[in-house]
Task: inverse folding
């Protein structure tokens, strides 16, 4: 009997020692370094755990031997809630770091920047070059894409619409890998709709604009005319005053837009005399569509223009504009600008 007790005691000691040794091994494995590069991404499929995770870690050369991983996950089940996704390994140094990340579900985020004042043609290049974004629109025309987006119903009264310029909100958009280009554009369209609705519903009284579409068209012109946010409400006032006075808008950015591929960097006299739907030196009122993507600042400038008696403006040579009340003042401001321009060109 005594011998049996001694044998049992020895067995328990061995078992306890083995258990302690195993526990220490698992703790050491949990803190083991992994071979991750700062720019490395790890793609985890749905249902990846246990042996599949061992295979993934070894295939990606994150760890040479991951045989202890299934035992660690059994010991610490809180680390076994692996979520599918794409993860950045930047800042991940140990097995514990990696498992914590995979349990968090915090996928890597990419972004694409859409800049105000640009056209959808320019935006589309950024969209097509965005990393890890599923491209579903490459073979679709702008008109087809327009129909796929939730564009404001005001367009139903305008007729066939082929132009996406102006109808997407400029910003930097974050997205998870394997998002679609259409989903990203839908976010931009929805944000623009909200900004336009807000500007239209809160607009000043008695603006010479029939609907939100016209507000967006004018905001796109303001966007192209000045990059100085503090100046936009004053620029908007000039166009509002001209519309109220039934004067032609005579704005160069619309002419350039109407020229399309024919624009080579400068506007000639014959360009101002060539009819297009966008030549505001010839047509009355607003052009038929926005000419660029619009910032919220430009929308608010049109919704709340300054109260001025200005009808003209011209570049002042310092990045801003000189605003004038009549043609005589405007012509003088133009001459001042030309003198400044010649002095800069001649290096004086």
Result:
């Amino acid at each position: 009997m005594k011998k049996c007790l001694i044998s049992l005691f020895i067995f328990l000691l061995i078992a306890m020692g083995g258990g302690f040794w195993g526990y220490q091994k698992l703790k050491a494995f949990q803190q083991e370094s992994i071979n991750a590069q700062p720019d490395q991404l790890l793609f985890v499929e749905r249902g990846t755990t246990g042996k599949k995770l061992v295979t993934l870690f070894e295939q990606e050369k994150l760890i040479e031997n991951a045989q202890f991983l299934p035992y660690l996950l059994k010991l610490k089940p809180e680390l076994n809630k692996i979520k599918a996704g794409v993860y950045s390994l930047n800042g991940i140094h140990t097995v514990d770091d990696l498992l914590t990340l995979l349990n968090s579900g915090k996928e890597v985020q990419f972004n694409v920047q859409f800049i105000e004042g640009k056209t959808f043609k320019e935006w589309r290049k950024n969209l097509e070059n965005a990393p890890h974004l599923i491209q579903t629109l490459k073979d679709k025309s702008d008109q087809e894409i327009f129909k796929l987006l939730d564009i404001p119903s005001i367009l139903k009264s305008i007729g066939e619409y082929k132009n996406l310029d102006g109808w997407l909100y400029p910003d930097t958009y974050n997205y998870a890998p394997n998002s679609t280009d259409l989903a990203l554009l839908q976010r931009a369209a929805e944000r623009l709709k909200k900004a336009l609705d807000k500007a239209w519903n809160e607009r000043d009284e008695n603006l010479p604009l029939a609907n939100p579409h016209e507000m967006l068209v004018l905001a796109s012109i303001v966007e192209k005319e000045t990059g100085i946010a503090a100046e936009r409400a004053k620029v908007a006032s000039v166009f509002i005053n001209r519309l109220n006075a039934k004067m032609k808008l005579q704005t160069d950015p619309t002419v350039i837009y109407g020229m399309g591929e024919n624009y080579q960097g400068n506007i000639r006299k014959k360009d101002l005399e060539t009819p297009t739907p966008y030549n505001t030196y010839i047509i009355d009122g607003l052009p038929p569509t926005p000419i660029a993507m619009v910032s919220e600042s430009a929308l608010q400038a049109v919704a709340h223009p300054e109260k001025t008696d200005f009808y003209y403006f011209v570049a002042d040579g310092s990045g801003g504009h000189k605003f004038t009340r009549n043609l005589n003042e405007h012509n003088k401001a133009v001459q001042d600008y030309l003198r400044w321009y010649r002095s800069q060109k001649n290096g004086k």
User: Anything to note?
Assistant: Residues 313-348 form a domain with the Double Stranded RNA Binding Domain fold (CATH 3.30.160). The first strand starts at residue 41 and ends at 44. The mean pLDDT is 88.
